[in-house]
């Protein structure tokens, strides 16, 4: 019998909620009409779009007309940066952080090439952006501030409310990449104060290739994908109704079970840490105020990539925070930004648990790491 796989890479993607999948089927096989068509056959698709928008809006404390469907986190991030960061010829500057996902960093590199300046805020050793530093860096010329809500590698959750207030005090728009956070921790866009927020369904047990951008009513933004008049004329393209319905279902289901999931994920983290501590393993745990289920560890004198492959041989899926080519070992930009010491940084791995992981699985992973480190 083949050994059971243990999947602990939920920050990369999550398993599709089976009931959400069932919700998709009628919109693929029966009610497949283009939701923009005026005839009665399109009514069910249109209604499903409206209801999905309402469900998603309620889950994050928004109004339905503030939810814009996109193809996922990467598109939402690109839209936020390029659609708002360069829409004013006077206020031209963007501020982001050094530990953003490449969907933000590479979108910022694009606008820099167009002549719009971007500054990259440093973080402390826990991966926190300091509101004081933002206060010192921001100017009347700042158009957009984009800081992620939770980091995808080390799981650090930022003080978005404080950062957002500073941006607003200088008349800047505030965007947050909440791709890792939506569906995992409580989010209320009005309480946070943000103008835009990116989310991606496959990170909260929805399908891949679908997501949304929350845009607060009145936020100045131009469209990023041009064509037809879908999404209030701001995001063209025939809507993927089936995926949108499944996204709404998965998000609601995650939000309904959030407290239970959060405490289960915390227990899984605790199991890993206590097994490692019991064996006196020398490691650093990166980040602080972690996303539930995130355990990012740096081990002294080993290669993260070696750990990943050896765990893979044992049927365990995790991620690394480093990579090596034939000549060089490289830590990720996040591990570099938090300043992990050289003797630890190449030995960085990320475990990201999901609600389906068991305490036994967490223990198995920790023991597998220990046995590799000792061999
Ligand atoms: N932003 C963050 C923080 C992410 O973790 C990811 C995916 O890993 C993305 C953006 C990109 O999302 P998507 O895979 O939906 O394009």
Gyration radius, rounded: 21 Å
Bound molecules: pyridoxal-5'-phosphate
In terms of structural class, how would the helical and strand content be classed?
alpha/beta
Order of helices and strands: EHHEHEHEHEHEHEEHHEEHEEEEHHEH
Poorly predicted parts? none
Architecture blueprint of SSEs:
Blueprint: E1 6-7, H1 18-29, H2 43-60, E2 67-70, H3 73-85, E3 93-97, H4 102-113, E4 118-121, H5 131-137, E5 142-146, H6 160-169, E6 173-177, H7 189-192, E7 196-200, E8 211-215, H8 241-256, H9 258-278, E9 283-286, E10 294-299, H10 304-313, E11 316-317, E12 319-320, E13 322-324, E14 329-331, H11 333-337, H12 342-345, E15 348-352, H13 359-374
Parallel strand pairs: 1-11, 3-4, 3-5, 5-6, 6-7
Antiparallel strand pairs: 2-8, 7-8, 9-10, 10-15, 12-15, 13-14
Pyridoxal-5'-phosphate (PLP) is lined by residues 72-74, 77, 101, 103, 148, 152, 177, 179-180, 200, 211.
Textual characterization of the structure:
The model has no long low-confidence stretch (mean pLDDT 96). Helices cover 39% and strands 16% of the residues. It contains 13 helices and 15 strands. It is α/β, with parallel strands linked by helices and 375 residues long. The chain has helices spanning 18-29, 43-60, 73-85, 102-113, 131-137, 160-169, 189-192, 241-256, 258-278, 304-313, 333-337, 342-345, 359-374; strands at residues 6-7, 67-70, 93-97, 118-121, 142-146, 173-177, 196-200, 211-215, 283-286, 294-299, 316-317, 319-320, 322-324, 329-331, 348-352. The strands form four sheets. It has a seven-stranded mixed beta sheet, sandwiched between helices. Pyridoxal-5'-phosphate binds next to helix 3.
